[in-house]
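Exercise 7. Predict the structure of HTH luxR-type domain-containing protein from marine metagenome.
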Amino acid sequence: MTLSLNSSSAVSLLGFFGSIPKKVERETSIDSQVSVDESADLMNRVRSGDETALTNLIDRWKTPLFRFFHRSLRSHADSEELTQQVFIKLHGSAHRYKPTAKFSTYLFTIARNLLLDEIKRRERRPIDIVDPAELNMATPGRDPRDEIDEALKICLDRLPETHRTALLLRVQRDLSYKEIAEVMEASESVVKTWIHRARQQARKVLGDLRATS
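Solution. The predicted structure, encoded as tokens:
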């Protein structure tokens, strides 16, 4: 049996996205509660027509996906919308799913394609150089961790999409270089270069922050 996710059932299944907080809290690099092996099993059940399995996948992955989009787009509404679109596409392609790679690789390939479409829609042009004057965050009494978080957000905003996405998949999702290469359709050596340059930029931003504090 093949599921039919029409507009009304999509609203029913995805309506609880309002539970994502307006403020994206500080998170660890890996969401340990998400089991990739269990997710692959759930996806196989979705392919067989199990609607409960789809709901469980949404519950497991909605927050990691939202964080992935929000780190690049800095828009709650757009991140929420794209997160929903991932699951609609995931359901629509369920009959073609073959567990030949980690489920997260399959999932974030869909997510990255949607992200690229959104960036093109915005006609966003990343800037590679961070102006230290933009940091301007040494506010008396402010939590230093908040200043570091803000500096890193600025850094991510200014990175080219390839560098930013590769770094987020490595740090947030703990994907291997090989898995990131599959998601981004690039060689492992290119992915390593992107991540290396992104980390260099992050170190520069943090160095500028320390110099001005």
